[in-house]
Amino acid sequence: MSLIVQKFGGTSVADPEKIRAAARRAIRAQKQGHRVVMVVSAMGKQTDELLRLASAVSDKPPAREMDMLLSTGEQTSVALVAMAIDDLGAKAVSLTGGQFGMKTDSSYSKARIRSIDTGRIEKHLDEGHIVVAAGFQGIDDDLNITTLGRGGSDTTAVALAAVLGADACEINTDVDGVYTTDPRLLPEARRVDVISYDEMLELASLGAGVMHSRSIEFAKKFGVPIHVRSSFSDRDGTMIVAQPESESSPVSGAALTKDEARITVLGVPDVPGISQTVFSAIAEKKVAVDMVVQNIGAEGKADVSFTVPGDELELTLSALDSIMEKIGATGLTHDADVSKVSVVGLGMASQKSVAARMFRALGNAGVNIHMITTSEIKISALVPRDHAANALRAVHEAFALHERPADAKTWASIQADSSREADVDDVVERLQNDALEALTLTDISIVEGQARVTLDGVPDQIGVAADVFEEIGRAGIFVDMIIQGYDGVDGSTSVSFTIDDNDLDAGLKVAKSICEAHSMRDVRGAAGITKLSVSGIGLRSHTQVGTVLFEQLADAKINVEMIATSELQVNVVIDSTRGDDAKKCLQAAFADSLR
Ligand code: ADP
Ligand code: ASP
Ligand code: MG
């Protein structure tokens, strides 16, 4: 008998009528012959309401009590859903996270799933019940109630689908699928039939709120196909599977993180180990750092800039406070009025001038770019917040995301072969391990024969990045990593990019002409550099990856020239002579997580 997990988000159980509608959908699935596990969120805006109540009684509610409070939202809704099912004449049982054996670690408000005991759920299913499981919550070893983080019911649903070996995992929500960008922000966004795990993971962590990003880590790791669909209609929605919608499109989606904050640590000595101290202090607070740009300024001093979620700015600043003296930094600046606009696509890894297209679109829309970072399947630009909506519209249009690609796969073709994609034995083995959300690394590798070009004194003005990368593109040079950030001299930025060693002369020639045309300060090039990549699943949310990586490289006295992070890879650029040493020491340090 097939098993189906049906998750219902907050808006889908917002009032009694919607609760009864969700109940009917589950009963219908059961009548069609499925065993049904529902995963339910708190009703409507209940979680926000509870947060508001907490802040009304305390300026700093203890984390444990916060999770105790927030979990009540889901406890209310599962009971109501089970009552509705009973009233409609079917059998149901509601279970809290603790009751269905959802064991987590003890990091309140961001708990990670350790294990799920399926025995109790299976017993109820065997008895013919619809199991109504509370999303978002679990218990730690001391029976404290924990929560998984905002939006965490998606992760509960996909995790349950994985451990129960479900045939389908439906995410019933208030949109009828995944769109090329948030349809609430951009009406011209297009619903896609299919999107790949990697793209969805990246988009979710870059602001596409339709799925909790950790749920996609789970889905990818355990090969669970996800069907995102509307609670309010019977239409097919979007399948999230291993394959992308189109093999030819460079970009498949765009996302906006509206409330981002930029921090720059000024004048730190440029010696191995400094980045490590900075980022491990932040990682300790479990803050996920993004868009790291480090510039090597004059007199052996460096400035390190990076972004963090806006609501974690204060926490991050307090973490830095304690180490400023230790690292010998001369100052710290931050900007809380910035947003990050990103484009994501598996296809960009093999196509030229994708970044230039994005930068030109932003330039034409009158949007200035403060910072740029790229990785194999995403490009992010930090822009002034009051230009965020404009920026999103401009990049969506530049990549014609509103148009269906000619080679787009359809829901039907994917559905035909979207059964469990992972190797079954492998999944069973991993499910027995007691750390379901543990870090999983797939590879540690180096790419040699790279070169770096750096432009200093790049005016922080509209359209400059587009000019630079269009020129490079016209010279037929393939650019891999791009970073742009504050360059240590007020009002200017530096742009660095990596290219093939063989293209260095040509790249420098183009860079020099751009430097002159725009009155930039300087052009520098370096041959003989290596890109070191650690690949895996969900690397940004596992903040320890960066920490361990920097720690290891610092201990081995290997200097990091450039950094690029994504959900799929952490890349650093180092000197070629140290490539093999770096790879060996990381392989040893991550031996437990590599598979
Ligand atoms: P639920 O309560 O069901 O979990 P959420 O509010 O968490 O629902 O997620 C659904 C919302 O996600 C949609 O209403 C939509 O505004 C937003 N969203 C953001 N990005 C996207 C996207 N790329 N595609 C679809 N919806 C998106
Ligand atoms: N109720 C929780 C929230 O609002 C979890 C969820 O809905 O997924 O974040
Ligand atoms: Mg949600």
Characterize the structure shown:
It is built from 18 helices and 24 strands. By secondary structure, it is an alpha+beta fold. The strands form 4 sheets. It has a 12-stranded antiparallel beta sheet, with helices on both faces. The chain has an 8-stranded mixed beta sheet with strand order 3-6-2-1-9-11-12-10, with helices on both faces. Helices cover 34% and strands 29% of the residues. The protein is globular and about 80 Å long. Strand 4 (102-104) and strand 5 (113-116) form a beta hairpin. Bound molecules: adenosine-5'-diphosphate (ADP), aspartic acid and magnesium ion. Adenosine-5'-diphosphate (ADP) is lined by residues 9-12, 41, 151, 173-175, 178-179, 181-184, 208-210.
Enumerate the spans where pLDDT stays under 50 for 5 or more consecutive residues: none
Q: Give me the count of strands.
A: 24
Q: What's the story with the biggest beta sheet?
A: 12 strands, antiparallel
The overall average pLDDT, rounded, is 92
Kindly name the structural category: alpha+beta
| Share of helix, binned | 25-40%
Label the overall shape.
Answer: globular
The share of residues in extended strands comes to: 25-35%
* Ligand list: adenosine-5'-diphosphate, aspartic acid, magnesium ion
Strand order of the largest sheet: 14-15-13-16-18-17-20-21-19-22-24-23
The number of helical runs is 18
Spatial extent as radius of gyration: 24 Å
C-alpha termini separation? 33 Å
